[in-house]
User: Which sequence fits this backbone?
């Protein structure tokens, strides 16, 4: 059973993308195909999560080669939660882009690329092999390269050249780290690596050095403090349907990989690595939120907030206690949904007002009161105000930090939350609350926006659907947080108790 | 042999990094390619060199004869080369488009996405 | 590039490249070789052809633009099929001229289709294992021994998919890069 279950989240987007390639010149067919595959992906992810929830870790060996030799796929709770949240976001994004993306981009292979990106994310979350992790990262990166430059406007080309350069560099670092690990331990299967690292007769003096390669490479992909400059320079350039997807998901996959390798493989001799990660996490939070304070573009503020939130996720890793890791897992899932939703809201605003620049926006509260309400929900959730979902994540992280005695880090994180509220208030004031700024020399009637055509109104109505869907999920996560919290606590226990993982992969039940 | 290759790797890395830090597009791509080569060579060397023993099992044998080269780094290398090939092809097309759009080859001219103030929206 | 020597030589060499690439593809069973390298070798012929005569002529020459007989002009489906085959093989020269003038419409077989077919074959070859309750991509072999091909099994399907995909990707890259 697990053979089918584990490959379904990969095969559905793969075959969806292939079929989309056959219908290259017919975007209508591509829309239907990708909608079907996204729905299938969500149901496969739910099924996978239910199975993993009831019978611990599932594994399968691609090609039926036994564990350390073949390619292993592993699904534990953390991985399947990631697959589920990414598929939910992918579904919402797809519905948004049915109308929210211009036709030339849709014709030029947007849908197959989106599905391939899903495939890459799913693969990175489910793989049990270090080199395969690299390959899946390349799959999702190359889709991302194309998506960012899709359409080829000036800003997009400029953003993508920065993005491509830094990510090729990061991939080289990742590859070098993998080479070092292979050179030291002679295997790349993550479970066998974990076994070897913990064996008493292994010389582990060089393992932390290999860990540094991974910290730098995955740190670039996750945009942590000194390595984040590419993110605000590129993420806001493509259309909102694309930047919402990559902004909401990609950096989190980097964090996922960081958590995975540092809990499973580099989990020894951590007394020098953890303080470094802790420092990075504090600075990432702080610099991200301070950077956002200076910006005057809706999307750029959100891009800087991605960086700030990455700090929280790394914080849980640096504390390395079950509670803090559970907080990280909860926070990642919450953040994927909330960040995507905020990007989508900025897209809906821009669809009516034709701008993302705060000085030229205003009066959205009068025109779109429902949207204003949805924005407040997501913004409060991002800032961590109870009872929204961000609160529970931050609460677990802060509690974990207090229990570990890291007062300074917890203090920083709480202060950063306050600054997040400041940024969100700024967006609220500028976009929703203040009056629409008047054109110089324009008559006073020009204050109102031009009447929208029926087609535009239909577009906007369809754009509301994914925003409502994601907002509903966020509210549910906040008000009914108990199941997800207990799931993430169990996922954190699985992460810290690597024997279960090793046994599931190396000695599978016949 | 390893010592010579180590120096070659070091030189390739420094040349690659120098080119990446250069302002010209074309040198950026060259730098990325050379860095990719250096990485591939690094993996090849760190997987230990064995000369003259290919890991192929002959017709009459059950296992390969010692000493044979480790096939895993070679497989990794092949995969990495293929991936690098695809990404470099994309990067070349990208800089071609950038050159056609911007009419410049200087990376320092591409700084508009880093600026804080956003451009004014077009009049409706 | 317009050189007589390359142009004449490549016409003769394309079939050689093709045969050799197929040989490498099937050799990949038990010896060094396989779909990837076979596809690369096979696409070399096309690339040289594009260098000698331009990328457009590759499309015209190698069946990448097919003519489909109109359904309305024929009495039955089988006749339509026959006409299509006829016009694409021994009457191809005439059809190509008509296509060029725009008198008839052809369908373009893009390299993208080659990529898609290859991916479908490669990914689909793994499904056989899943049907038998085995892990994805489990190799299944038949017991028949064919004279040149050896034992057929699902891995040869995978290799064939890789072969087609590599060929499609290389052709696509060449076409994009030679567009000026």
Assistant:
């Amino acid at each position: 059973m697990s053979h089918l279950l584990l490959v379904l989240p990969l095969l559905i987007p793969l075959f969806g993308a292939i079929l989309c390639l056959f219908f290259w010149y017919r975007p209508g067919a591509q829309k239907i195909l990708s909608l079907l595959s996204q729905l299938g992906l969500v149901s496969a992810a739910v099924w996978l999560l239910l199975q993993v929830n009831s019978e611990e870790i599932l594994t399968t060996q691609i090609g039926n080669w036994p564990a350390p030799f073949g390619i292993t796929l592993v699904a534990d709770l953390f991985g399947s939660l990631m697959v589920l949240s990414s598929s939910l976001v992918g579904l919402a994004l797809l519905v948004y882009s049915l109308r929210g993306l211009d036709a030339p981009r849709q014709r030029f292979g947007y849908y197959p690329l989106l599905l391939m990106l899903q495939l890459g994310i799913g693969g990175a979350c489910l793989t049990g092999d270090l080199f395969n992790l690299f390959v899946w990262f390349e799959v999702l990166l190359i889709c991302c390269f194309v998506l960012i430059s899709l359409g080829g406007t000036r800003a997009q080309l400029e953003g993508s050249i920065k993005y491509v350069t830094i990510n090729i560099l990061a991939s080289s670092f990742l590859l070098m780290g993998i080479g070092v690990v292979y050179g030291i331990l002679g295997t790349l299967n993550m479970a066998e690596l974990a076994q070897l690292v913990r064996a008493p007769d292994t010389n582990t003096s060089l393992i932390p050095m290999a860990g540094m390669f991974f910290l730098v490479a995955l740190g670039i992909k996750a945009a942590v403090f000194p390595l984040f400059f590419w993110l605000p320079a590129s993420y806001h350039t493509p259309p909102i349907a694309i930047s919402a997807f990559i902004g909401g998901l990609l950096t989190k996959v980097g964090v996922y990989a960081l958590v995975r390798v540092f809990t499973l493989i580099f989990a020894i001799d951590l007394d020098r690595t953890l303080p470094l990660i802790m420092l990075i996490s504090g600075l990432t939070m702080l610099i991200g939120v301070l950077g956002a304070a200076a910006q005057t573009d809706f999307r750029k503020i959100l891009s800087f907030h991605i960086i700030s939130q990455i700090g929280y996720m790394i914080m849980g890793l640096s504390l390395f206690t079950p509670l803090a890791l559970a907080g990280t897992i909860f926070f990642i899932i919450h953040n994927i949904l909330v960040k995507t939703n905020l990007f989508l809201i900025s897209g809906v605003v821009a669809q009516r007002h034709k701008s993302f620049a705060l000085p030229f926006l205003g009066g959205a509260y009068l025109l779109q009161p429902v949207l204003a309400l949805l924005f407040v929900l997501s913004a409060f959730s991002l800032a961590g105000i109870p009872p929204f979902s961000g609160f529970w994540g931050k609460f677990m992280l802060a509690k974990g930090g207090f229990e570990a005695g890291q007062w300074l880090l917890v203090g920083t994180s709480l202060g950063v939350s306050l600054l997040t509220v400041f940024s969100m208030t700024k967006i609220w004031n500028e976009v929703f609350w203040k009056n629409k700024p008047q054109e110089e020399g324009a008559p006073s009637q020009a204050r109102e926006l031009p009447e929208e055509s029926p087609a535009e109104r239909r577009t906007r109505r369809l754009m509301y659907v994914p925003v409502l869907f994601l907002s509903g999920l966020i509210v549910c996560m906040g008000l009914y947080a108990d199941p997800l919290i207990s799931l993430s606590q169990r996922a954190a226990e699985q992460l810290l108790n690597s024997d279960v993982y090793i046994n599931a992969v190396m000695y599978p039940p016949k | 042999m390893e010592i010579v290759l180590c120096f070659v790797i070091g030189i390739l890395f420094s040349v690659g990094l120098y080119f990446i830090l250069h302002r010209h597009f074309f040198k950026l791509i060259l730098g990325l390619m050379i860095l990719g080569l250096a990485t591939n060579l690094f993996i090849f060397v760190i997987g230990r060199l064995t000369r003259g023993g290919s890991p192929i099992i002959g017709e009459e044998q059950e296992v390969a004869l010692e000493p044979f080269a480790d096939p895993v780094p070679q497989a990794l290398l092949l995969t990495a080369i293929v991936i690098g090939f695809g990404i470099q092809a994309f990067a070349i097309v990208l800089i071609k488009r950038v050159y056609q759009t911007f009419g410049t080859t200087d990376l320092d001219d591409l700084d508009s996405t880093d600026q804080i103030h956003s451009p004014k929206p077009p009049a409706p | 590039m317009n050189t007589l020597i390359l142009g004449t030589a490549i016409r003769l060499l394309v079939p050689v490249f093709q045969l050799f690439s197929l040989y490498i593809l099937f050799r990949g069973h038990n010896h060094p070789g396989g779909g990837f390298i076979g596809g690369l070798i096979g696409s070399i012929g096309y690339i040289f052809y594009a260098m000698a005569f331009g990328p457009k002529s590759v499309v015209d020459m190698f069946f990448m633009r097919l003519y489909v007989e109109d359904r309305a002009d024929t009495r039955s489906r089988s006749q339509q099929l026959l006409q299509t085959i006829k016009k694409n093989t021994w009457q191809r020269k005439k059809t190509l001229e008509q296509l060029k003038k725009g008198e008839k419409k052809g369908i373009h077989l893009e390299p993208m289709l080659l990529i898609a077919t290859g991916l479908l074959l490669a990914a689909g070859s793994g499904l056989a294992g899943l049907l038998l309750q085995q892990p994805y991509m489990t190799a299944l072999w038949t017991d028949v021994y064919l004279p040149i091909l050896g034992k057929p099994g699902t891995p040869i399907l995978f290799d064939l998919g890789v072969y087609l995909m590599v060929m499609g990707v290389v052709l696509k890259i060449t076409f994009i890069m030679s567009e000026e």
User: Anything to note?
Assistant: Residues 65-107 of chain C form one domain. The mean pLDDT of chain C is 81. The radius of gyration of chain C is 19 Å. Chain C touches chain A through 19 residues (CB under 8 Å).
